[in-house]
Amino acid sequence: MPTLGALADILSALAFLGYGGVTLWLLARPRERMAALMPAPRWLAIVAAATMAWSASLYVFAPGASQVLVAQTLRDMAILGWLAATFWPKPAAMAGAQRLIFRLLVTISGISLVAGLIAHWRSAVASAWLGPSLAVSTMLVAIGGLLVIDSGVRRASAGLRTPVMAVAGGFAMLWGYELNVQLIGAMTGRAATTLIHLLPAVALAILPTFVIAAMDIGRERMRLSRPAAVRTLILLGAALYLVLIGLSGAVARQLGGDYGDLAQGVFLTLALGAGGLLLLSARARAWLSVMISKHFFEHRYDYRAEWMRFTATLAQGDGEDDRNLHRRAARALAELTGSPGALLMLPDPLGAFRVSDHWHWPAGIDEGAELPLRSAFMLQETRHIVDLDAERRGEKGEQDLAIPGWLLADPRAWVVVPVLHFHRMIAVVVLHRPPVSRALDWEDLDVLRIAGQQAASYLAESHSQAALSEAKRFDEFNRRFAFIMHDIKNLASQLSLLASNAERHADKPAFRADMIETLKISSRRLSDLLVRLSPRERGPSADAVRTLIEPLMRDVAAEVRTRRALFVGCQAGLAAWGDAGSIRQVVQHLVSNAIDASAEDTPVQLIAVAENGRVRIDVIDQGAGMTRAFVRDELFKPFVSTKEGGFGLGAFEALQLAQAMGGSIEVASEPGKGSNFTFWLPLAEARADAGTPTGKVA
Q: Are 63 and 175 contained in the same domain?
């Protein structure tokens, strides 16, 4: 097993090779590229070369020797030069105290270097005073160097890349380690041999920072996420606890007795008490979160994590209470600021805002409490986020927002957030006071303002969807009514023609029988129209049954026989799969249009056959015909009609009904040559062969 000295030699050799390679690599890189990455690229190469020389001295003379301290002085001077060139590229930017510290450190390092070189040059073994003097010099330089790094990092933390800051952190770690070694030796009177032999390991630990700082990575500032930072703080706290409990035990054992066990027991009890307080107390956790955000982070909010959680809460929520979008919006704004609850107020018809919903707001709020019209108007115009504590103190600012008394009187109310969408306030959210109350700052106001706008977009979209759904219901009713009006017009024409003929043929028994039959048909059609107007009407596809086509065609022919002779031909036993009333309506519309388009002496044909597993119903006329453009662009478009006083809904409704039953309508027409409308329907036998029950026969 290798001894500690042998391990130190191995580590020193590795450090020498590593820093030698880094030095050559840094010198070989283009000057312009290095200058674009960091303020003082050549100084970093000088520091690497000086650290290489120091590593060589560790290998040759063993850690802790006076020769190593001389080489360490040379390394410290190089580090000081890099710090000055990186954080204070212009000497005038350095404050008077910083300039004084720099000069003292450089002077101490220079004197130590010269004295050490002279002492070793004059004699093979350094004088007895050299070791203690170099040790004191090392401590002074380490202390001053740590102060310089702290000052430089705080001054330039907003502008330099994180890898450069990591190099400074590595130097701070190195100086802190060396200061600890020298302090232990000075306080105990004995050298910390183990720590001294581990100096090469510390040098190797900071070697990667040289490489990272000079590579084309990290151009943007890198940051630990808040969860990682909090876990790091927890680990550091645990490590500090272990160190303290160990030190207390060591001190107590030096005093004698059982004080060591007592001290460790006291520390354990305090740690368990502190852990239990953080676990059980929401107020303690909130206080710790505020302290960490205030003292460890540049910004109060972890914007990426908060925005992802905010958006996820608005989008879907994760509980029984989150099905309501209004409640989710209140919850999202509350969780963003650490508030335990929220009220949501919506406008009433008169413009005032009333409490509509809440998330985890304690009992005791009047559900009818309102924000008056004047206050709502002021919030909408000023877009002001109201700190109710400031209002209670009388700090109203330039404009009086007319906050109602019930809201100011409730100490739980903390902040009023107007939820604005394009300068229109669609809701108001009142946030509950958090466990650890604090004053709002500019960051809180900006976050709440932007979050309110995003929540407003979700609420506005929800309101638009509700309005669209209502408009669709009205549109559906209007469409049904328009179809009904179209069919009533046809019935009115038929009844008018019947009344006109009755004046001339009322004395004929055959005409009276035909008139009674026509009236029965018209009455049945009117009843069907009323059923269709009902919102509970079932669709044609739901009412589909096996429907015989021949009786249906005879009924249609009987209805139109007073207007025109109609040639009817149907395959025997032909049955379609569909709603009988819808099929009759489509065929009747097609036949009626064909009659209207034909001359009085021109017959209209209605033919039905089975073809390729479907029912084909053709309505053929020899009328004026239509152009292909008209058929393609206008024939089936609603509210477009070539008839004077027509609604333009017949063809559109016929196509809708056909498609609802799984059928279609095809048109073949040419101007001057008439038209052929083909109505396709599923064949009932084909449905039976496919395993679909055919049900009753219509």
A: yes
Give just the sign of the alpha carbon dihedral 487, 492, 495, 501: negative
Partner residues linked to 620 by β-bridges:
605, 676
Q: Is residue 28 part of a domain?
A: yes
Average of pLDDT values for 241-258?
Answer: 56
Separation between Cα atoms, residue 184 and residue 198, nearest integer Å: 15
Q: Which residues pair with 545 in a beta bridge?
A: 578
Asked whether residue 50 falls in the same domain as residue 172, the answer is: yes
> What is the spatial distance between Cα 403 and Cα 392, in angstroms, rounded to a whole number?
10
pLDDT at 293 over 80: no
Structural tokens at position 243? 């160190």
Domain boundary among 199, 222, 245: 222
453: in domain: yes
Q: Answer yes or no: is pLDDT of 167 > 60.
A: yes
φ, ψ (nearest 5 deg) of residue 247: -65, -40
Global pTM value: 0.43
* CA torsion through residues 483, 484, 489, 494, sign: positive
pLDDT in tens, 323-342: 588 888 898 998 888 888 99
- The CATH code of the domain that includes 335 is 3.30.450.40
CA pair distance 102, 94, nearest whole angstrom: 10
Task: Supply the CATH number for residue 609's domain.
Answer: 3.30.565.10
Phi, psi of 542 (to 5 degrees): -70, -30
Residues contacting 48, CB < 8 A, separation 6+: 19, 22, 23, 26, 210
Residues 413 and 562 grouped into a single domain: no
Provide the residue type at 322 as one letter.
Answer: D
| 509: helix, strand or coil | helix
484-489: long-range contacts at Cβ-Cβ below 8 A with a sequence spacing of 24 or more? 484/529, 484/532, 484/533, 485/647, 486/647, 486/649, 486/650, 486/653, 487/525, 487/529, 487/585, 488/529, 489/647
Residue 497 is assigned to a structural domain of this protein: no
- Shared-domain flag, residues 334 and 204: no
Q: Which of 583, 614, 605 is nearest to 686 (CA)?
A: 614
Least confident of 127-141, 236-250, 389-403: 236-250
| Percent of the chain with pLDDT strictly greater than 70 | 69
**Cβ–Cβ < 8 Å for 105, 141:** yes
Is 59 in contact with 12 (CB distance < 8 Å)?
yes
Q: Which amino acid, residue 243?
A: V
541-568 b/e (C-beta count within 10 Å ≥ 16 → b): eebbbbbbbeebbeebbebbeebbebee
Higher pLDDT, 12 or 292: 12
Query: Whole domain around residue 141: which residue ranges?
Result: 4-222
Give the per-residue pLDDT at 322: 44
Same domain, 68 and 214: yes
Using an 8 Å Cβ cutoff, are 667 and 675 in contact? yes
Query: Residue 69 maps to which CATH number?
Result: 1.20.1070
How many domains is the chain partitioned into structurally?
3
Asked if the structure places residue 139 within a domain, the reply is yes
Element holding 31 (H helix, E strand): helix 31-37
Same domain, 72 and 204: yes
Q: What is the dihedral angle through the alpha carbons of 30, 36, 41, 44, rounded to the nearest 10 degrees?
A: -110
The answer on pLDDT for 163 being more than 80 is no
Amino acid at 107: T
Q: In what side-by-side order are the strands of the sheet with 664-670?
A: 566-570, 604-611, 614-621, 674-682, 664-670
Helix (H, G, I), strand (E, B) or coil at 244: helix
DSSP 332: H
Task: Provide the pLDDT confidence category of residue 320 given band limits of 50, 70 and 90.
Answer: very low
> Both 454 and 543 in a single domain?
no
pLDDT band at 548 (very low <50, low <70, confident <90, very high): very high
430: β partners: 343, 416
Element (H, E) at 575: strand 575-578
Q: How far apart are the first and last CA of the chain?
A: 101
Number of residues that this document lists for the chain: 698
Domain boundary among 204, 222, 240: 222
